[in-house]
Amino acid sequence: MCNACQIKVDNLDNATEAFAGELLETLNRSAVGQGISLGHRTGLFDVMSEMNRWATSDEIADTAQCNERYVREWLGIMVTGGIVAYDKSTKTYLLPEHHAALLTRAAVSNNFARTFQFFPVMAEVETDIVECFKKGGGVPYEKFTRFHEVMAEDSDGNVVAALFDTILPLVPGLIEKLERGIDVLDIGCGLGHALTAMAERFPNSRFVGRDMCDTPIESAKQEVARRGLTNIRFEVADVAKPAQPESFDLITAFDVIHDQRDPATVLSQVRRALRSGGTFLMQDLQASSELHENIDHPLGSFLYTVSTMHCMTVSLAQGGAGLGTVWGEQLAVKMLGEAGFENVTVRRLEHDIQNNWYVSQLSE
């Protein structure tokens, strides 16, 4: 038992006692978060939702093709955490439907469970991050073994699922242009799920995805080959290097600018690569550039944690600016203006508390 759990709060003053209670709650909820990530990765939430009945740990384990002893212990996390219901008389378990609605892959855009995967991804570099606190510098992308996989899954829910119905329509007439045929570039494309979805939907347009990391680009190439798409290609490239002038009609950046070594130069190269009348569509986190304005943000602590443990540090690892996840709307608009984008509109989607959508259209 850890020492923190043995504190006798009776002798503490009221404020400290209250804070001790908050810390104990945080400790427990953090543990539940780890269990949620496990439930997602093992498919246990999906299995329990599909079973849709009270079941023993043996039945759940057999259906999920998992080891029963591990499943039973995991169920202990979920029951004590209030995620799964338990009938002590029959020793059976049930995932309530209203919980399944937010924890299963069937939920698509509402699946919270996939987001909890970021914590183990970040935890694997904690020792490296501690060294950075002492010596400076950063932790490079290659240290994060599952980052691209988790990020792609997150993108499937908050970008790909909403791409055609709500995101692309933020730019008037864009869908019609894509149907007729235009040139599109996605920078920091990762596994390229969003770009591949567009290439499949708009066969008359031509698509290019660029990312600095080899592994996701190779996976993206394999996927488009499997689908037989001929209007899309993926390239390993530094998007801060000089771009071919006026090469694209649409450039997208889905949650990537703040990670860049030199985000100001990247934005300038985006402006250079756009044709007259072209559009830059940038997704980034919905937050203020001022800390005090983020205190009541529903995702504030999460965003600053992701920044400390990933976004800021991967930029610093390249000797970069280290803007961080919470560079904020004010700075984003300022930097877009400095890059030559005169007309910047910040849009938000009603269902999305996480993202801002920056639409920058050039004059004809």
Total number of distinct structural domains = 2
Coarse structural class: alpha/beta
The CATH topology of the largest domain is given as Rossmann fold
- Output the CATH class name of the largest domain: Alpha Beta
What is the terminal separation in angstroms? 68 Å
Number of strands: 9
Can you tell me the residue ranges where pLDDT is under 50 for at least 5 consecutive residues?
none
CATH superfamily of the largest domain: Vaccinia Virus protein VP39
- Give the % helix: 40-55%
Give, in order, the helices and strands: HHHHEEHHHHHHEHEHEEHEHHEE
Please tell me how large the radius of gyration is: 23 Å
Number of helical elements: 15
* Shape call: globular
Main-sheet strand order equals 5-4-3-6-7-9-8
Proportion of residues in extended strands = 5-15%
CATH architecture tag of the largest domain:
3-Layer(aba) Sandwich
Mean pLDDT: 94
**Biggest sheet features:** 7 strands, mixed
Domain S-adenosylmethionine-dependent methyltransferase Rv2258c-like winged HTH: 31-105
Pfam family, one: WHD_Rv2258c
Keywords: Methyltransferase, Transferase
Protein name: Methyltransferase domain-containing protein
Can you give a write-up of this model?
With 364 residues, the protein is an alpha/beta fold. The chain folds into two domains: 3-104, Arc Repressor Mutant, subunit A, CATH 1.10.10.10; 122-361, Vaccinia Virus protein VP39 (Rossmann fold). Helices cover 46% and strands 14% of the residues. A seven-stranded mixed beta sheet has the order 5-4-3-6-7-9-8, sandwiched between helices. β8 and β9 form a beta hairpin. The radius of gyration is 23 Å and the shape is globular.
